[in-house]
Each structure stands twice: as C-alpha cells, then as structure tokens.
Amino acid sequence: MDSARTPAYDDPRPAPRALATEAVHAGREDLARQGLHAPPIDLSTTYPSYDSRAEAARIDAFAADGAEFEGPPVYGRLGNPTVSRFETALARLEGTEAAVAFASGMAALSAVLLTRSALGLRHVVAVRPLYGCSDHLLTAGLLGSEVTWTDPAGIADALRPDTGLVMVESPANPTLAEVDLRAVAHACGSVPLLADNTFATPVLQRPAGQGARLVLHSATKYLGGHGDVMAGVVACDEELAGRLRQVRFATGGVLHPLAGYLLLRGLSTLPVRVRAASATAAELAARLAADPRIARVHYPRIGGAMVAFEVHGDPHEVIGRVRLITPAVSLGSVDTLIQHPASISHRIVDAEDRRGAGVSDRLLRMSVGLEDVDDLWADLDAALGDRQPQDRERPGARGLHPAVG
Ligand SMILES: *Cc1c(COP(=O)(O)O)cnc(C)c1O
User: Fold this and answer.
1) Which of 7, 147, 187, 405 could disulfide-pair with 138, CB 3.0 to 4.6 Å?
2) What is the largest CA-CA distance in the chain?
3) Superfamily for 275-402?
4) Which residue has a Cα nearest atom 6 of ligand 1?
5) Counting Cβ atoms within 10 Å, is residue 264 exposed (0-12), middle (13-18) or buried (19+)?
C-alpha cells in the first residue's frame, strides 16, 4: 500500500473535530481497517494468554498508575474493549484526556468519593440542590465522607485542609438552578471540582473547559438516551482516571459490555436528540410561563430538554392525569417523562433540606422527549386541569424565571 495515501489510522488523537462529527466517529476509528461497520461486542470475562510474564508486568503497571491496558485485558473487571470505546468517545465529547465508566451514576460518584478518602481527604464541599441520591450519599456519610453544604459564594470559606472534593450540578436536579462553573472552579483552588453534567450533556456545556477536573454523568439519562441502559461515567484527566480505574477494579462497579455498546450507539445521536428536545422544551416552557395554572417555570439559561414548574393546584393530580407523557422518574429518554421530585427523585432528602434547596412541594420536573410539541402541550394542558376563574382574571405577567442561584 502507498503509505503516503494511507490514512493515519493509528493516530490516537486526531485533530479536533466538531462535536457532531466526534459523536458519530469517536471510539470507532479502527473499525473500517478491520472491515467492520458496527462496533463488536466483547462479552469475555477472561482473556487467554500464553505469556504470564507479560501479564505480570501489565498487572504491575496497572497497580502503579491505573493506566488503561494496552491489548486485551486479563480479566473483565480490569477493562473491556467495548466499554473502552464508549469511554474514548465520551472523553472526546467532554474534551478530557480520559473517561472511566461504571455500572451507574451512583457507582461513578461512589468511586470518586473513595479515591479522595483513600488519600485522607474525606471532607466534601457541596452545593444544593443535587440529585436526591447524591445528596443522600453525602448527607448520610455512607462512604465515610463528611459534607459541608454551602452556596457557590461560600465555597472558598468552606474549604479545609482535608477537603478532597467540591461538588456541584449545573443545571441542577430538579430545580435547573445554574452555577457559574468558571467562578466555582476558581474558588476551589487546588481542590478538584466535580461537575455533574447529566442535565446539560457535552452538547450544551463542557465543564472541563471551565475548570472542572471531574465531569460526572448518569449515562442512564441522555447519553444512553432511550431509557434502556443504566450507567455512569466520569470524564477527567489521566491521573484521576488511573485512580478511578484502580477503585473500579477493587470494588467491582464495572459497566457491562452490552451497556457499553448501547451507550456508544446512544452517543452518535446525542447532539440531534438534545437539540431537538431542547427546542420543544423551550417552547413548552414559554407556554407554561404564560399559563395561569402555573405559579413558576424554571428553565435554564443554557437551554436543554428539562423543564420544571410549580403548579397552583395539586401536583399529584397532574401526574395522575397525563396520558401521552410518561409518569416516571428518570430523564433523557426519547419519550417525555414527568415526575414529582418531593415524592420520588428527592424523597430521600430531608423535607426541610429539600425545601431549603428550592425544591417546592408543588414542583414538577419534566424531561422533554422527541414527540410533537403540540401533542405534548395538549396532554399537559389536559393534565393541568381546569383554569380557575380567579386565575383567568389575573394579568398574565408571570414570566419565565431563569433558574439561577
Ligand atoms: C440520575 C442521576 C444520578 C444518578 O445516576 P444513576 O445512573 O441513576 O445511578 C446522578 N446525578 C444526576 C444529576 C442524575 O439525574
């Protein structure tokens, strides 16, 4: 073959490409050379090798720095080629050196906390609201960490010598409150900032570029995108990734290869899904903001496919009346989901803490999918019930509250 015309197949870091291109090609660069189109699924739990001296050296290297295995892994808990394609692709989308996948978002967060406390850095500074179970994991100290809750302006003062992590979500679950990631990262000094980017996805926001050292996803949501895979992933630099791989190896929260395959497939449509659903969500947010049955609408400045709103009436009645929209927790699927955070996603958070974080008992959280906007509005309109006479008489100047703070 004429080498001058041979594409640079083996260049691990090709020139940066647009997000839409990376979404379709990252993690798949070797396929055409192998005569493949769809990525292979490697279900092996173990890998034969006639050279145990070489395996000893590879295991020693992993124990030293947690670097990803070159060649086939020795055992499934040390790594998997299909999962590693997803990790490569997600790292490219988030603009980080590496990504480490886990069995769920909570497994990913647990691994991060364990890497920090293993260094004796068990104190965490966090900003509410967070996803209900993340709040619970920190508040209950289930992994031996100790949390100080603060607002973004209080982060610098909350840091201690044993602070190992600062954690924020933006837009946050479920109020869609946004924090200025660049300012927060600055306030963290040398303490790593973890930004949960589940709601924004790298399509709308790349926190690593704003100073977050760890970018966490519940990949169960938009990355998978079809409500049929549970996963978590942390995008970060290679040094932190090495520690995360070592913890994953020792604690076992690995992602199944079939899930890795589905996630890689999900990533290829992530930009179009997020943009289409966001356009519909923005339109629904505007219609809700003009509706007298709605007390307040939360919709982030950066946009996105999540809308939260507080009703004047009984939120349980709305959940009971949807027909097209799916009354279910979770988010990021192709169909629209609605849930009542005070009853489900944030039930595990103490009621006073929950309300203090701005999660009203009348708040509903909606994950907008890919249905037609008028069909969704018709369902929502019916579910919201009668327009009360006294409301109809009020001037309709409720407006759309940007979800800040
Ligand atoms: C769902 C969610 C999580 C937890 O992820 P799982 O995959 O359910 O373990 C963490 N953070 C946010 C923002 C979430 O929405």
Assistant:
1) 147
2) 82
3) Aspartate Aminotransferase, domain 1 (3.90.1150.10)
4) 105
5) buried
| Cβ contacts of 72 within 8 Å, gap of 6 or more | 47, 49, 81
| Spatial CB neighbours of 334, under 8 Å, sequence gap ≥ 6 | 225, 226, 227, 273, 369, 370
Distance from the alpha carbon of residue 12 to the mean position of ligand 1, in angstroms: 31
Q: For 136-180, how does the pLDDT look when each residue is reduced to its tens digit (9 = 90+)?
A: 999 999 999 999 999 999 999 999 999 999 999 999 999 999 999
The 306-311 sheet, strands edge to edge: 326-327, 337-339, 363-367, 306-311, 294-299, 401-402
The closest residue, in CA terms, to atom 15 on ligand 1 is: 131
For residue 328, which amino acid is it? A
Token reading at 230: 């549970």
131 flagged as catalytic? yes
Q: What integer pLDDT is reported at residue 387 of this predicted model?
A: 82
Q: Letter for the amino acid at 372?
A: D
* Residue-range domain boundaries for the chain: 275-402
CA 74 / ligand 1 centre spacing (Å): 30
Residues with Cβ within 6 A of ligand 1? 104-106, 131, 133-134, 169, 173, 196, 198, 218, 220-221, 230, 232
Mean pLDDT within 68-94: 94
221 catalytic per annotation: yes
Specify whether the CB–CB gap between 207 and 195 falls below 8 A. yes
Q: Please, are residues 244 and 234 in contact by the beta-carbon 8 Å criterion? A: yes
pLDDT digits (tens, 9 = 90+) for 283-328: 999 999 999 999 999 999 999 999 999 999 999 999 999 999 999 9
To test the ligand 1 pocket, which listed residue (170, 198, 228) has its Cβ within 8 A of the most ligand atoms? 198
How many other CB atoms are there within 10 angstroms of residue 25's CB atom? 15
Q: Which amino acid is at 136?
A: H
pLDDT score of 401: 56
